[in-house]
Each structure stands twice: as structure tokens, then as C-alpha cells.
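Hey, resending since the last one bounced:
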Amino acid sequence: MDCGQAHAKAPYSVESTATRYVVRVQNSGGPFLLAVEADGTLRGSGSTTVNGRLVTAIKGGSASFAPHSQSCTISTLSPKGTRSTAAR
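The C-alpha cells again:
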């Protein structure tokens, strides 16, 4: 998951409701839901904070990291070839 310069992995589950599938993202900065549309678009709303980390140095084959958090709006993610309104 990317939010500005904050990058993190977050567990998620896909649930079936009576009318559609929903992706439930268990983000540490605030969980959120994404509705799965028929064309594969993921649609959400609100905002969340991504608590990730940034590479601060690379020496040889080792990287050093520092914590980094950033808040972003949850929006729409569309498959390639369709319009996306997601904030980056």
C-alpha cells in the first residue's frame, strides 16, 4: 500500500455480501473497506494513515530504514485502461 512516501503491507480479507464483494483492509493507521465493482474497480471513501518506512541508506547489500507515516484519501482504483481517481 502506498500513500505519498509511506509504503507498508497490510493484511486484508475479501468478503461476500448480499450485493457485492468487499475488501476489508486491516491497516494499522485505520482499517478501511473497498467495494469491488463489476468492472474490477475498487471504490472506497474517507481517509487513512499509512504507517510505513523509508529507506534512509543503502550500504553494500544492506538497507537502513526509518519509520514514516502519511495520511491519504481513500478513493477509486481502476484496472488498467479505465479511469482512476485515486490520490497518490
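The first strand starts at residue 2 and ends at 3.

Sorry for the duplicate.
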